[in-house]
Protein 1
Amino acid sequence: MLWLLMTTGKCNLRCKYCGGSFDSKTVPYEESYDLDKLKELIEDDRDPTIIFYGGEPLVNYRYIMDVMDRIEFARFGIQTNGVLYKLLPEKYWRRLNVVLLSIDGREHITDAMRGKGVYKRVIEAATYVKNMGIETIARMTVTEKTDIYEDVTHLLEKGLFDKIHWQLNVVWTERWNFIEWARSSYLPGIRKLMDYFMINLERGEVLKIIPFLGVISSHYFPTLRGVACGAGYSSITVSTDGRIISCPIAVNEHWSEIGHINDGFRLVYDDYPEECKDCQYLRYCGGRCLYANKERYWGEDGWREIDQVTKEYLGIVLSEIDRINELVRSNIIKLEDLKYDPTKDSTEVIP
Ligand code: SF4
Ligand code: SF4
């Protein structure tokens, strides 16, 4: 199971789509529970992956060291903006299996939303981590400034990221002209990027573009029992105050609370909205995002707009299944190479 450990509610940046730190009353800046209790809970899991999450987890690097000193049997990873990478001693970096770095693509796109100079710092952090042989994942936030083809291929060509993932900047920001941008830029870009993915696949190379690979994996190895991120059933989040929640974004929402460090937790499966139950894409999408389904900040029509774009993107990816079958039959790629488990990486698959 995936354990997202909120290391602190504090962040060292104030990115435009997020605004920076949580209120310390909601997500305190240091943990206030007994780490031995956490260890007891994780010990009951036969295959734990622990991902340090924030705020910005490196702000409280001491917690990361304390957890890693106590728990030896887990896979470890971190979701970080990378800027403070020097704070964590090298021996702890070396124990991480995967490092997810926030970067939005080209330098001017990243710096426009995250702050001047951030791109260079992330590249520096990615180089540091990559040189240790640790797997790296670029985590992009996609906004109206993004050209999805240009920004993803830019990151692939840097040669510093083993996988690329992105999330759309929707629902928890002010509503913007998402559908118009999706039609004129994003969906044509997805088509072009999928063509690029297929050209590489035909040469026997599987590009680790997670929003493509995760969907293709679900076609051949169907496993979803809820949203693709696993929120509530194969992924849980421990907040710094000891609450256990299904989704790391839902730190204030009562529906998200599924337990406490001191009392254990219950898992929640198949929590689909009505709209999803008969959807042809349910086995690939799982309802896209539990949080967005519960908290429809963009209203019902906003939910439908995002859903329309989700369906079109899924249609583009799945339109290549016949060609992929052919490549598997002719031994150009192995089916196993298309298998992807998002809970090992803490990615959501569906943007
Ligand atoms: S595509 Fe839309 S309706 Fe279908 S499962 Fe995903 S969110 Fe639900
Ligand atoms: S995709 Fe949605 S439900 Fe899953 S972790 Fe992200 S915000 Fe939470």
Protein 2
Amino acid sequence: MSAAAGWRVCVAPMMDVTDRHCRYFLRQIAPRVRLYSEMITADAIIHGDRARLLDFDAAEHPLALQLGGHDPRSLVSAARVAAAWGYDEINLNVGCPSDRVREGRFGACLMLDAGRVAHCVEAMAEAVSVPVSIKTRIGVDDHDSYEFLAGFVERVAGAGCNTFIVHARKAILKGLSARENREIPPLQPGRVHRLKREFPQLTIVTNGGIRDLETIRHELAAVDGVMIGRKAAEDPCFLAAVEAGFLTGTDAEGGVDREQVVERMADYAARQARHGVPLHRVARHMLGLYHGQRGARAWRRFLAEGARGTQASPRLLTASLGVLHAAGRDGIID
Ligand SMILES: Cc1cc2nc3c(=O)[nH]c(=O)nc-3n(C[C@H](O)[C@H](O)[C@H](O)COP(=O)(O)O)c2cc1C
């Protein structure tokens, strides 16, 4: 198996979304896709509550930790901690355009300082034995030519980074919110394809707007991997179809036994409750499970309302199946 094979299908890092509970849930649906944590700053890992920030379930492998930061020494310390914690990859965020991140001088604005990124990556790669990758954009503000992107990649690859995840739109640092920066600058997947052609030795993963199997087929003909963000959160069972089509090669529809997923999550939520985790922190990630299915709306409402507060019981998850069946019997289609 080639080194790139591990990155063929990835789920994107998403703040406030891909926490450990979300990842465990997605893992029940898609056993093989590569999962990424939310971005965690190096300083948070150095000074914060490590168990709260870093703990995960063994089922989540293969699992990458995404770091935010720009100081090589802090990044090295954080990467060491994360690697010892058992993460399979350390990924540096060079794509986030938010004001807060820009003020901290990391995220997308780091694209303008390839030397610093190279230094950070080199230092981390020396310190840990797991792969160090970066997630970046195709450009920033007016620095949006292919030559700028290729120059950045060449410099960082020269420092020992072999894996580049590229969100195929540029970041606009002033005037657009982080959310608008995921919609407004146009996607230019051809730029990422060209990178792969010109740097065939690198693992190149494309990201941005991937929402159907046909697009994935098209992208995988040109690059090593695809990274799926919002679609995975909205319709997690899509990942099962992607696994079936592109990882296990069964080309089946990737039928998911959703009820079994709910039962497993009820067990998980009960385990988490013993550690003081309220049900809504687990259940909120599950609301897309029945996306497009009969009874989905009633089920979602039952779960979202019932899981509120700190006292909700994990048994609510099992009970939710009754609501689904009743809604299905009444012919309620979402
Ligand atoms: C709610 C949300 C939070 C995000 N947080 C991060 C993050 O922490 N780190 C990061 O590199 N990208 C983050 N992103 C960007 C995604 O990783 C991805 O690049 C972007 O959503 C485009 O992919 P998509 O069209 O498949 O969603 C976030 C996106 C969303 C929607």
